[in-house]
Amino acid sequence: xxEINVSTSEKDRDIRHDWTAEQALELFALPFAxxxxxAQTLHRRxxxxxxxxxxxxxxxxxxxxPEDCAYCPQAAQYDTxxxxxxxxxxxxxxxxxxxxxxxxxxxxxxxxxxxxPKDRDMDAICAMIEGVRGMGMEACATLGMLTPAQxxxxxxxxxxxxxxxxxxxxxxxxxxxxTRTYADRLDTLQAVRDAGIKVCCGGILGMGEAARDRAExxxxxxxxxxxxxxxxxxxxxxxxGTPLEGREELDPLDFVRTIAVAKIMMPxxxxxxxxxxxxxxxxxxxxxxxxxAGSIFVGPKLLTTANPEQDKDANLFRRLxxxxxxxxxxxxxxx
Length: 335
Ligand code: SAM
Ligand code: DTB
Ligand code: SF4
Hints:
Blueprint: H1 8-14, H2 21-28, H3 32-46, E1 53-61, H4 90-102, E2 107-112, H5 122-134, E3 138-142, H6 148-156, E4 161-163, H7 170-173, H8 182-195, E5 198-200, E6 203-205, H9 211-223, E7 230-235, H10 252-265, E8 270-273, H11 282-290, E9 293-298, H12 310-320
Parallel strand pairs: 1-2, 1-9, 2-3, 3-4, 4-5, 6-7, 7-8, 8-9
This protein binds S-adenosylmethionine (SAM), 6-(5-methyl-2-OXO-imidazolidin-4-yl)-hexanoic acid (DTB) and iron/sulfur cluster.
The site of S-adenosylmethionine has 17 residues, from loops.
Protein backbone atom coordinates (compact mmCIF):
# COMPACT_ATOMS: atom_id res chain seq x y z
CA UNK A 1 0.00 0.00 0.00
CA UNK A 2 1.27 3.49 -0.83
CA GLU A 3 0.97 4.87 2.66
CA ILE A 4 2.67 8.21 3.24
CA ASN A 5 3.92 8.78 6.82
CA VAL A 6 0.69 8.17 8.68
CA SER A 7 1.00 8.16 12.47
CA THR A 8 -0.64 5.36 14.44
CA SER A 9 -3.11 7.75 16.10
CA GLU A 10 -4.18 9.22 12.76
CA LYS A 11 -4.65 5.72 11.41
CA ASP A 12 -6.75 4.65 14.40
CA ARG A 13 -9.01 7.62 13.82
CA ASP A 14 -9.29 7.08 10.05
CA ILE A 15 -9.68 3.32 9.78
CA ARG A 16 -13.06 2.37 11.19
CA HIS A 17 -15.15 -0.75 10.85
CA ASP A 18 -18.23 0.54 12.70
CA TRP A 19 -19.80 2.85 10.11
CA THR A 20 -23.60 2.89 10.07
CA ALA A 21 -25.88 3.35 7.05
CA GLU A 22 -27.12 6.64 8.59
CA GLN A 23 -23.55 7.96 8.83
CA ALA A 24 -22.86 6.89 5.26
CA LEU A 25 -26.04 8.62 4.07
CA GLU A 26 -24.96 11.78 5.91
CA LEU A 27 -21.71 11.71 3.96
CA PHE A 28 -23.64 11.25 0.69
CA ALA A 29 -25.77 14.29 1.60
CA LEU A 30 -22.83 16.66 2.20
CA PRO A 31 -22.47 19.62 -0.16
CA PHE A 32 -20.41 18.34 -3.10
CA ALA A 33 -17.37 20.55 -2.39
CA UNK A 34 -17.27 19.50 1.27
CA UNK A 35 -17.54 15.82 0.36
CA UNK A 36 -14.78 15.98 -2.25
CA UNK A 37 -12.52 18.01 0.03
CA UNK A 38 -12.89 15.48 2.82
CA ALA A 39 -12.25 12.53 0.50
CA GLN A 40 -9.27 14.17 -1.19
CA THR A 41 -7.73 15.14 2.18
CA LEU A 42 -7.90 11.53 3.35
CA HIS A 43 -6.71 10.23 -0.02
CA ARG A 44 -3.56 12.39 0.28
CA ARG A 45 -2.86 10.99 3.74
CA UNK A 46 -2.42 7.50 2.27
CA UNK A 47 -1.63 7.93 -1.44
CA UNK A 48 0.15 10.16 -3.91
CA UNK A 49 -2.88 11.89 -5.51
CA UNK A 50 -1.13 12.18 -8.88
CA UNK A 51 -0.43 8.47 -9.23
CA UNK A 52 -3.09 6.20 -10.64
CA UNK A 53 -2.45 2.47 -10.72
CA UNK A 54 -3.11 0.77 -14.07
CA UNK A 55 -4.46 -2.77 -14.22
CA UNK A 56 -5.26 -4.75 -17.31
CA UNK A 57 -8.05 -7.32 -17.58
CA UNK A 58 -8.36 -10.48 -19.60
CA UNK A 59 -11.28 -12.85 -19.80
CA UNK A 60 -9.47 -16.20 -19.72
CA UNK A 61 -12.76 -18.14 -19.84
CA UNK A 62 -15.61 -16.31 -21.51
CA UNK A 63 -19.37 -16.83 -21.51
CA UNK A 64 -21.63 -19.81 -20.86
CA UNK A 65 -21.87 -19.03 -17.13
CA PRO A 66 -24.57 -20.91 -15.19
CA GLU A 67 -25.23 -17.98 -12.81
CA ASP A 68 -28.01 -15.42 -13.36
CA CYS A 69 -26.35 -12.08 -12.43
CA ALA A 70 -28.78 -9.65 -14.08
CA TYR A 71 -26.06 -7.26 -15.25
CA CYS A 72 -23.80 -9.83 -16.86
CA PRO A 73 -23.32 -10.41 -20.59
CA GLN A 74 -21.67 -13.77 -19.83
CA ALA A 75 -24.64 -15.49 -18.19
CA ALA A 76 -25.68 -18.37 -20.47
CA GLN A 77 -29.38 -17.71 -19.98
CA TYR A 78 -29.32 -14.21 -21.53
CA ASP A 79 -29.07 -13.74 -25.27
CA THR A 80 -26.28 -11.16 -25.43
CA UNK A 81 -24.23 -12.37 -28.39
CA UNK A 82 -21.33 -13.45 -26.13
CA UNK A 83 -20.34 -16.97 -27.21
CA UNK A 84 -19.12 -19.50 -24.67
CA UNK A 85 -15.43 -20.33 -25.01
CA UNK A 86 -13.09 -22.77 -23.27
CA UNK A 87 -10.37 -21.79 -20.82
CA UNK A 88 -7.57 -20.14 -22.80
CA UNK A 89 -4.12 -21.72 -23.13
CA UNK A 90 -1.53 -20.59 -20.62
CA UNK A 91 0.82 -19.45 -23.43
CA UNK A 92 -1.85 -17.28 -25.06
CA UNK A 93 -2.71 -15.65 -21.72
CA UNK A 94 0.94 -14.93 -21.00
CA UNK A 95 1.47 -13.40 -24.45
CA UNK A 96 -1.48 -11.05 -23.74
CA UNK A 97 -0.07 -10.29 -20.30
CA UNK A 98 3.30 -9.35 -21.78
CA UNK A 99 1.60 -6.94 -24.20
CA UNK A 100 -0.30 -5.35 -21.28
CA UNK A 101 2.92 -4.95 -19.31
CA UNK A 102 4.60 -3.33 -22.32
CA UNK A 103 1.64 -0.91 -22.46
CA UNK A 104 2.25 0.13 -18.82
CA UNK A 105 0.03 -2.18 -16.76
CA UNK A 106 1.44 -3.10 -13.34
CA UNK A 107 -1.34 -5.50 -12.37
CA UNK A 108 -2.86 -8.24 -14.51
CA UNK A 109 -6.34 -9.45 -13.66
CA UNK A 110 -7.69 -12.69 -15.11
CA UNK A 111 -11.44 -13.30 -15.08
CA UNK A 112 -13.41 -16.47 -15.67
CA UNK A 113 -17.15 -16.84 -16.24
CA UNK A 114 -17.54 -19.58 -13.66
CA UNK A 115 -19.77 -20.07 -10.64
CA UNK A 116 -16.58 -21.46 -9.11
CA PRO A 117 -13.43 -23.04 -10.56
CA LYS A 118 -13.29 -26.80 -11.12
CA ASP A 119 -10.31 -28.46 -9.48
CA ARG A 120 -9.21 -29.68 -12.93
CA ASP A 121 -8.76 -26.05 -14.04
CA MET A 122 -6.56 -25.05 -11.12
CA ASP A 123 -3.24 -26.21 -12.63
CA ALA A 124 -3.67 -23.94 -15.66
CA ILE A 125 -4.87 -20.99 -13.57
CA CYS A 126 -1.88 -21.38 -11.22
CA ALA A 127 0.50 -21.51 -14.21
CA MET A 128 -1.03 -18.24 -15.48
CA ILE A 129 -0.54 -16.60 -12.08
CA GLU A 130 3.08 -17.78 -11.87
CA GLY A 131 3.74 -16.53 -15.40
CA VAL A 132 2.26 -13.08 -14.73
CA ARG A 133 4.29 -12.68 -11.54
CA GLY A 134 7.37 -13.97 -13.30
CA MET A 135 7.17 -11.04 -15.71
CA GLY A 136 7.08 -8.53 -12.85
CA MET A 137 3.39 -7.69 -12.58
CA GLU A 138 1.03 -8.21 -9.67
CA ALA A 139 -1.50 -10.96 -10.36
CA CYS A 140 -5.23 -10.73 -9.68
CA ALA A 141 -7.92 -13.28 -10.48
CA THR A 142 -11.71 -13.38 -10.38
CA LEU A 143 -12.99 -16.91 -10.82
CA GLY A 144 -16.20 -17.01 -8.76
CA MET A 145 -16.69 -18.72 -5.42
CA LEU A 146 -13.67 -20.44 -3.85
CA THR A 147 -13.25 -23.13 -1.23
CA PRO A 148 -10.56 -22.51 1.40
CA ALA A 149 -8.39 -25.17 -0.30
CA GLN A 150 -8.68 -23.46 -3.70
CA UNK A 151 -7.82 -20.09 -2.14
CA UNK A 152 -4.74 -21.70 -0.58
CA UNK A 153 -3.64 -23.09 -3.96
CA UNK A 154 -3.93 -19.65 -5.53
CA UNK A 155 -1.90 -18.16 -2.69
CA UNK A 156 0.75 -20.84 -3.16
CA UNK A 157 0.97 -19.89 -6.85
CA UNK A 158 1.70 -16.30 -5.79
CA UNK A 159 -1.70 -14.63 -6.37
CA UNK A 160 -1.60 -11.07 -5.01
CA UNK A 161 -5.31 -10.14 -5.18
CA UNK A 162 -8.62 -11.95 -5.56
CA UNK A 163 -11.57 -9.97 -6.92
CA UNK A 164 -14.99 -11.01 -5.66
CA UNK A 165 -17.59 -8.26 -5.52
CA UNK A 166 -20.54 -7.83 -3.16
CA UNK A 167 -22.08 -5.94 -6.11
CA UNK A 168 -24.80 -4.19 -4.03
CA UNK A 169 -26.52 -4.17 -0.63
CA UNK A 170 -27.73 -7.40 0.94
CA UNK A 171 -31.37 -6.27 0.60
CA UNK A 172 -31.15 -5.38 -3.12
CA UNK A 173 -28.96 -8.39 -3.94
CA UNK A 174 -31.85 -10.85 -4.46
CA UNK A 175 -33.24 -8.63 -7.24
CA UNK A 176 -29.94 -9.01 -9.12
CA UNK A 177 -28.76 -12.57 -8.43
CA UNK A 178 -30.73 -15.61 -7.29
CA THR A 179 -28.24 -18.42 -7.92
CA ARG A 180 -26.02 -17.66 -4.91
CA THR A 181 -26.43 -15.75 -1.69
CA TYR A 182 -24.78 -12.75 -0.11
CA ALA A 183 -23.49 -15.11 2.59
CA ASP A 184 -21.80 -17.23 -0.13
CA ARG A 185 -19.97 -14.11 -1.25
CA LEU A 186 -18.84 -13.28 2.26
CA ASP A 187 -17.64 -16.88 2.76
CA THR A 188 -15.43 -16.65 -0.34
CA LEU A 189 -14.04 -13.31 0.84
CA GLN A 190 -13.18 -14.91 4.19
CA ALA A 191 -11.48 -17.87 2.46
CA VAL A 192 -9.41 -15.43 0.40
CA ARG A 193 -8.46 -13.40 3.48
CA ASP A 194 -7.62 -16.53 5.50
CA ALA A 195 -5.33 -17.77 2.72
CA GLY A 196 -3.36 -14.50 2.92
CA ILE A 197 -4.42 -13.13 -0.49
CA LYS A 198 -5.32 -9.43 -0.69
CA VAL A 199 -9.01 -8.73 -1.18
CA CYS A 200 -10.45 -6.75 -4.10
CA CYS A 201 -14.15 -6.23 -3.43
CA GLY A 202 -16.66 -3.60 -4.48
CA GLY A 203 -19.85 -3.22 -6.46
CA ILE A 204 -21.85 -1.88 -9.36
CA LEU A 205 -23.88 1.33 -9.44
CA GLY A 206 -26.76 2.17 -11.76
CA MET A 207 -28.64 -1.13 -11.41
CA GLY A 208 -31.77 0.60 -10.09
CA GLU A 209 -30.61 0.49 -6.48
CA ALA A 210 -31.56 3.21 -3.99
CA ALA A 211 -29.09 5.56 -2.31
CA ARG A 212 -29.53 3.50 0.87
CA ASP A 213 -28.38 0.37 -1.00
CA ARG A 214 -25.18 2.13 -2.00
CA ALA A 215 -24.70 3.25 1.61
CA GLU A 216 -25.39 -0.24 2.98
CA UNK A 217 -22.98 -1.88 0.54
CA UNK A 218 -20.21 0.49 1.67
CA UNK A 219 -21.05 -0.20 5.33
CA UNK A 220 -20.66 -3.96 4.69
CA UNK A 221 -17.35 -3.41 2.86
CA UNK A 222 -16.02 -1.14 5.60
CA UNK A 223 -17.20 -3.65 8.20
CA UNK A 224 -14.72 -6.19 6.81
CA UNK A 225 -11.61 -6.27 8.96
CA UNK A 226 -9.17 -5.51 7.53
CA UNK A 227 -10.81 -3.42 4.79
CA UNK A 228 -10.48 -4.81 1.27
CA UNK A 229 -7.17 -3.48 -0.08
CA UNK A 230 -8.91 -2.68 -3.37
CA UNK A 231 -12.50 -1.45 -3.80
CA UNK A 232 -13.74 -1.45 -7.40
CA UNK A 233 -16.69 0.82 -8.09
CA UNK A 234 -18.25 -0.12 -11.42
CA UNK A 235 -20.81 1.90 -13.35
CA UNK A 236 -23.22 -0.61 -14.88
CA UNK A 237 -22.34 -1.28 -18.50
CA UNK A 238 -25.80 -1.87 -19.95
CA UNK A 239 -25.64 -4.82 -22.30
CA UNK A 240 -28.40 -5.70 -24.76
CA GLY A 241 -30.13 -8.93 -23.79
CA THR A 242 -29.44 -8.64 -20.04
CA PRO A 243 -32.36 -7.93 -17.69
CA LEU A 244 -30.77 -4.61 -16.70
CA GLU A 245 -30.72 -3.24 -20.22
CA GLY A 246 -32.70 0.02 -20.25
CA ARG A 247 -32.39 0.73 -16.49
CA GLU A 248 -32.61 4.42 -15.69
CA GLU A 249 -29.11 5.85 -15.79
CA LEU A 250 -27.50 6.99 -12.56
CA ASP A 251 -26.76 10.70 -12.09
CA PRO A 252 -22.99 10.73 -12.80
CA LEU A 253 -22.47 13.01 -9.78
CA ASP A 254 -23.91 10.24 -7.59
CA PHE A 255 -21.22 7.96 -9.02
CA VAL A 256 -18.55 10.50 -7.97
CA ARG A 257 -20.18 10.83 -4.56
CA THR A 258 -20.00 7.05 -4.07
CA ILE A 259 -16.28 7.04 -4.83
CA ALA A 260 -15.79 9.85 -2.32
CA VAL A 261 -17.81 8.12 0.40
CA ALA A 262 -15.93 4.84 -0.23
CA LYS A 263 -12.65 6.75 0.16
CA ILE A 264 -13.77 8.39 3.41
CA MET A 265 -14.96 5.09 4.88
CA MET A 266 -11.89 3.08 3.69
CA PRO A 267 -9.16 5.71 3.22
CA UNK A 268 -6.17 3.37 3.07
CA UNK A 269 -7.81 1.23 0.37
CA UNK A 270 -7.36 1.77 -3.34
CA UNK A 271 -10.72 2.80 -4.73
CA UNK A 272 -10.87 1.60 -8.31
CA UNK A 273 -12.70 3.52 -11.05
CA UNK A 274 -13.70 0.33 -12.83
CA UNK A 275 -16.26 -0.50 -15.54
CA UNK A 276 -18.15 2.26 -17.30
CA UNK A 277 -15.31 4.61 -18.28
CA UNK A 278 -16.07 4.18 -21.98
CA UNK A 279 -19.27 6.19 -21.43
CA UNK A 280 -17.66 8.78 -19.12
CA UNK A 281 -16.36 12.18 -20.13
CA UNK A 282 -12.79 13.15 -19.26
CA UNK A 283 -14.24 15.71 -16.84
CA UNK A 284 -16.30 13.07 -15.00
CA UNK A 285 -13.22 10.84 -14.68
CA UNK A 286 -11.22 13.82 -13.39
CA UNK A 287 -13.86 14.30 -10.68
CA UNK A 288 -13.53 10.60 -9.78
CA UNK A 289 -9.77 11.03 -9.32
CA UNK A 290 -10.40 14.11 -7.17
CA UNK A 291 -12.83 12.04 -5.11
CA UNK A 292 -10.05 9.53 -4.40
CA ALA A 293 -10.08 6.97 -7.22
CA GLY A 294 -6.53 5.62 -7.42
CA SER A 295 -6.75 2.91 -10.02
CA ILE A 296 -8.25 2.16 -13.42
CA PHE A 297 -8.44 -0.68 -15.92
CA VAL A 298 -6.44 0.10 -19.06
CA GLY A 299 -6.64 -1.44 -22.50
CA PRO A 300 -9.43 -1.45 -25.07
CA LYS A 301 -11.46 -4.23 -23.45
CA LEU A 302 -12.70 -5.04 -19.95
CA LEU A 303 -13.87 -8.67 -19.97
CA THR A 304 -16.30 -8.57 -22.87
CA THR A 305 -17.17 -4.86 -23.19
CA ALA A 306 -15.26 -1.84 -24.45
CA ASN A 307 -12.89 0.32 -22.41
CA PRO A 308 -11.11 3.52 -23.58
CA GLU A 309 -8.18 3.08 -25.99
CA GLN A 310 -4.68 3.52 -24.57
CA ASP A 311 -3.98 6.83 -26.34
CA LYS A 312 -7.20 8.33 -24.97
CA ASP A 313 -6.16 7.44 -21.40
CA ALA A 314 -2.59 8.62 -22.01
CA ASN A 315 -3.97 11.95 -23.17
CA LEU A 316 -6.24 12.22 -20.11
CA PHE A 317 -3.34 11.40 -17.75
CA ARG A 318 -1.16 14.02 -19.48
CA ARG A 319 -3.83 16.72 -19.21
CA LEU A 320 -4.34 15.93 -15.51
CA UNK A 321 -0.64 15.53 -14.65
CA UNK A 322 -1.29 11.94 -13.56
CA UNK A 323 1.15 9.09 -14.02
CA UNK A 324 1.00 5.33 -13.54
CA UNK A 325 2.56 3.75 -10.47
CA UNK A 326 5.99 2.17 -10.38
CA UNK A 327 5.64 -0.97 -8.28
CA UNK A 328 9.32 -1.86 -8.40
CA UNK A 329 10.35 -5.51 -8.49
CA UNK A 330 7.56 -7.96 -7.65
CA UNK A 331 8.75 -10.48 -5.08
CA UNK A 332 9.16 -13.95 -6.53
CA UNK A 333 9.64 -15.58 -3.11
CA UNK A 334 6.60 -17.75 -3.58
CA UNK A 335 7.54 -18.95 -7.07
N1 SAM B 1 -17.64 -15.08 -12.58
C1 SAM B 1 -16.89 -14.46 -11.55
C2 SAM B 1 -17.77 -13.78 -10.53
O1 SAM B 1 -18.86 -13.33 -10.85
O2 SAM B 1 -17.35 -13.68 -9.39
C3 SAM B 1 -15.85 -13.49 -12.05
C4 SAM B 1 -16.14 -12.58 -13.22
S1 SAM B 1 -17.41 -11.35 -13.00
C5 SAM B 1 -17.70 -10.85 -14.63
C6 SAM B 1 -16.59 -10.01 -12.16
C7 SAM B 1 -17.41 -8.78 -11.81
O3 SAM B 1 -17.60 -7.99 -12.98
C8 SAM B 1 -18.81 -8.96 -11.28
O4 SAM B 1 -18.85 -9.28 -9.93
C9 SAM B 1 -19.41 -7.58 -11.51
O5 SAM B 1 -19.23 -6.78 -10.37
C10 SAM B 1 -18.61 -7.04 -12.69
N2 SAM B 1 -19.47 -6.88 -13.88
C11 SAM B 1 -19.94 -7.87 -14.67
N3 SAM B 1 -20.73 -7.38 -15.64
C12 SAM B 1 -20.77 -6.03 -15.47
C13 SAM B 1 -21.44 -4.98 -16.15
N4 SAM B 1 -22.25 -5.20 -17.19
N5 SAM B 1 -21.25 -3.72 -15.72
C14 SAM B 1 -20.45 -3.48 -14.65
N6 SAM B 1 -19.81 -4.44 -13.96
C15 SAM B 1 -19.96 -5.71 -14.36
C1 DTB C 1 -14.61 -5.46 -11.39
O1 DTB C 1 -15.12 -5.03 -10.34
N1 DTB C 1 -14.86 -4.98 -12.61
C2 DTB C 1 -14.17 -5.73 -13.61
C3 DTB C 1 -13.29 -6.68 -12.77
N2 DTB C 1 -13.74 -6.45 -11.44
C4 DTB C 1 -13.22 -8.10 -13.09
C5 DTB C 1 -15.07 -6.40 -14.57
C6 DTB C 1 -15.98 -5.45 -15.32
C7 DTB C 1 -16.73 -6.23 -16.34
C8 DTB C 1 -17.60 -5.35 -17.19
C9 DTB C 1 -18.43 -6.14 -18.16
C10 DTB C 1 -17.64 -6.89 -19.18
O2 DTB C 1 -16.70 -6.34 -19.80
O3 DTB C 1 -17.98 -8.06 -19.44
FE1 SF4 D 1 -21.18 -15.61 -14.19
FE2 SF4 D 1 -19.60 -13.87 -12.93
FE3 SF4 D 1 -21.23 -13.08 -14.94
FE4 SF4 D 1 -22.29 -13.75 -12.61
S1 SF4 D 1 -20.87 -12.04 -12.98
S2 SF4 D 1 -23.02 -14.41 -14.63
S3 SF4 D 1 -20.93 -15.40 -11.97
S4 SF4 D 1 -19.49 -14.45 -15.09
